[in-house]
Write a structure and sequence with these properties.
108 residues, four-stranded mixed beta sheet, 2 helices, mainly beta, two-stranded antiparallel sheet, single chain
């Protein structure tokens, strides 16, 4: 059940009408989100791109970390990798949605 209107959910966002939300970090595993990304898109009506790290580094292991595309309360795409990787996807700028569910992954 929605407790706030979409207008109320967008309060605090820039005065220009936002077209999408981007999160550049998210904790993996136990401290990770619990449907917050999906709820955010449902509450605001905006798509969300979560750009997370992948693979292990010197201090943490991000192999279970997820990069996500969510829209209208649903997760459209979930990406992760056992090594440092750049994911490239095709985003439709006119309709603010995935142009295709296919993506390219480039190991670093």
């Amino acid at each position: 059940m929605r407790t706030r209107s979409r207008r109320e959910s967008r309060k605090g966002l820039p005065s220009r009408e936002p077209k999408k939300l981007i999160s550049y970090a998210a904790a993996p595993g136990f401290h990770g989100p619990n449907r917050e990304w999906e709820r955010c898109t449902e509450d605001t009506g905006l798509p969300l791109l979560v750009c997370n790290r992948s693979g292990p580094d010197w201090t943490r292991n991000f192999t279970s970390a997820e990069s996500v595309v969510a829209k209208d309360g649903k997760r459209l795409l979930t990406l992760s990798s056992d090594r440092s990787t750049v994911f490239i996807l095709d985003w439709n700028l006119k309709y603010y949605k995935l142009a295709t569910p296919h993506y390219q992954d480039i190991p670093l």
